[in-house]
Amino acid sequence: MASYADNTFTPPELIRNFCIIAHIDHGKSTLADRMLQITGVVEERAMRAQYLDRMDIERERGITIKAQNVRLPWKVGDTEHVLHMIDTPGHVDFTYEVSRALEACEAAILLVDAAQGIEAQTLANLYLAMEKDLTIIPVLNKIDLPAADPDRYAAEIAHIVGCDADDVLRVSAKTGLGVGELLDEVVRVTPAPVGDADAPARAMIFDSVYDTYRGVITYIRVVDGKITPRERIRMMSTGASHEILEIGVVSPEPKPTVGLGVGEVGYLITGVKDVRQSKVGDTVTSLRKGATEPLTGYREPRPMVYSGLYPVDGSQYPELREALDKLQLNDAALTYEPETSAALGFGFRCGFLGLLHLEITRDRLEREAGLDLISTAPNVVYRVVKDDGTEMTVTNPSDWPTGKVAQIFEPVVKVTILAPSEFIGAIMELCQTRRGTLGGMDYLSETRVELRYTMPLAEIIFDFFDALKSRTRGYASLDYEEAGEQESELVKVDIMLQGEPVDAFSAIRHKDDAYSYGTLMTTKLRELIPRQQFEVPIQAAIGSRIIARENIRAIRKDVLAKCYGGDITRKRKLLEKQKEGKKRMKTIGRVEVPQEAFVAALSTDAGADKPKK
Q1: Coiled-coil region(s) at which residues (predicted)?
Q2: Last residue of a domain, which of 327, 345, 375?
């Protein structure tokens, strides 16, 4: 292989670009660790578990959130090859990361746990890879476990992928057994990247990250031509031009090179601090004699769940906006727009791909920008048709129309559940209580079954996954994809304090579930809001109809303490006087809701207590 010292580029026929796709906990990051060790790009003393997972949150939770790319040298016979590997996340909320990684590859290693078999998310990622016409390399991991049953699961994979059971490679990412043979197989079956070395430069941006000292670092995959340092480049969607200060490869630390040629994956730094200049899916080309046709970009992700993010301290609003700008650069699936709330002040309405995405985003904002945030209860996007025929989109309960409504449409998703066949009854019962419609059922083997349901998204964004896991003793796996919308009977439940609605506590619910939500919130708020000098009613209402009520009793001063004996009329006179004062106070007094009460009532745990209909 030509080295960079010779100022030459790697020939495309020696390059292999591949990614690893799998379910959570099937050993993607461990396999990536072994590959880093075997190829020698990380020294033994520098090695640590989950080497490519750079964020503290990833290491603490043991999950991959960001796809990471790394360049590996590998020799087959006398020929030196260059492997570009992308380690992808496994959770359904980060499918967008996986879809972007697949665009930069020619092959995908389908990794399956030899003790658990194929899971719902593995299937979903496999179908994504097949749509992109990638070469699939099926691999069974964890064959050293006592509970492993490789023969059974190899037959299951062969049935789904359409290969022979003998073609399924068997490795142990933990011990390194079979990983060398796997890399040989990658070189053998992965097609070399195709591109025109003499054409104008075209490279796809598949990721970017913000560095405080160096500005925006952009990760690219070169398709045509070559890109070199000190060259002026143009971003084709924004038209912005920059000079490349540094270009290089990630192996696994950034290493500057003399440029990137056809099929190579690497990074470039222009020193730009404006985070909007580097858009994921954009095409990079040369400023002089550049390409005219951009590469086909990525499909824009559609947010599935909306939630409001507000700083606890209102003065941190500009910092929150800056932090969201930087985070969106690194997480292209995040969308946000400013909004205000009478109760919480200024904040942002953010769109997420799921509940874990919401949780991780909030965690990252708090850690990376040092912010204290409140997130409102998550909800989905509704389409409302009014009586006069006009349509409106509702992402926030406060936008719900006040007049008569002709039709309400809510988003639905296709849910795929894989589980041992003994749990079919429990799963069906759970799905029916969540307004699910059975779409079909298939046996993958005698003991494993695949159930397909169509369900409203609002029913699964809270605690559906937890309920599914508890009913199947942790054996079920879940995947879902959007499937349009359906008409539903939905109502807006307002929570009122002393007759005044508090917009932060309002929610949109199915009419059968509205009463239980109202009861839950009024009871919760009665415990959280401190007692005032006057009695405060907490009411849940649908329109003008009150469906639940709790009272916070007034703090009373003992005005009779100074009355020893004497006539009852004296005591009554004092009590009447106190009663008048309380009534007057009630007309002018405001209910003070402490910040902690908002945090407690709006924490996502509120959804976990959601009563089942």
Answers
A1: none
A2: 375
One domain, residues 561 and 589: yes
The reply to whether 592 falls in a domain is yes
Q: Are strands 448-456 and 437-443 parallel, antiparallel or unpaired?
A: antiparallel
Determine the pLDDT at residue 612: 36
Q: Are residues 439 and 572 in the same domain?
A: no
State how far the alpha carbon of 107 is from the alpha carbons of 74, 76, 146, 491, 569, in Å: 16, 18, 30, 48, 92
Residue 589 annotated as lining a ligand binding site: no
Q: In the predicted model, what is the mean pLDDT of residues 109-125?
A: 80
Q: What is the DSSP-derived secondary structure letter of residue 296?
A: P
As a three-state string, the secondary structure of 451-515 is EEEEEEHHHHCCCHHHHHHHHCCCCCEEEEEEEEEEECCEEEEEEEECCEECHHHCEEEEHHHHH
Last residue of a domain, one of 127, 162, 189: 189
Other Cβ atoms closer than 10 A to 73: 13
- Residue 330 covered by a domain: yes
The residues, ordered by sequence, that sit 6+ positions from 287 with a Cβ below 8 Å of its Cβ are 231, 232, 233, 234, 241
Read off the tokens for 566: 């004497």
Question: From CA 587, how far away is CA 188, in angstroms rounded?
Answer: 81
The two structure tokens encoding residue 189: 């079956």
Q: Which helix (H) or strand (E) is 519 found in, with range?
A: helix 511-528
Query: Which helix (H) or strand (E) covers residue 111, if one does?
Result: strand 107-113
pLDDT digits (tens, 9 = 90+) for 426-457: 889 998 888 888 888 888 777 788 888 998 88
Nearest to 603 by CA among 505, 527, 509, 470: 505
Identify the band that residue 606 occupies on the pLDDT scale cut at 50, 70 and 90. Answer: very low
Whether 194 maps to a domain, the answer reads no
The annotation status of 494 as a binding-site residue, yes or no, is no
In a domain, 551, yes or no: yes
172 is in an annotated binding site: no
Q: Is 279 annotated as a binding residue?
A: no
- The CA distance from 36 to 409, in Å, is 50
Report whether 588 belongs to an annotated binding site.
no
Is residue 604 pLDDT above 60, yes or no?
Answer: no
- In whole angstroms, give the CA distance from residue 343 to residue 419: 44
Roughly what angle, to the nearest 10 degrees, separates helices 355-369 and 317-330?
Answer: 120
CATH code at position 34: 3.40.50.300
Helix, strand, or coil (residue 273)? coil
Using alpha carbons, list the distances in angstroms from residue 284 to 236, 277, 301, 437: 6, 11, 21, 46
Residues 161, 220 within the same domain? no
Number of domains observed in the structure of the chain: 5
**Residue 28 known to bind ligand:** yes
Give the C-alpha separation, 265 to 69, whole Å.
8
Q: How far is CA 142 from the centre of its chain?
A: 27
- Residue 74: domain span: 4-189
Find out whether 26 is annotated in a ligand binding site: yes
CATH of residue 358's domain is 3.30.70.870
List, in sequence order, every residue forming a beta bridge with 207; answer none if it has no partner.
219
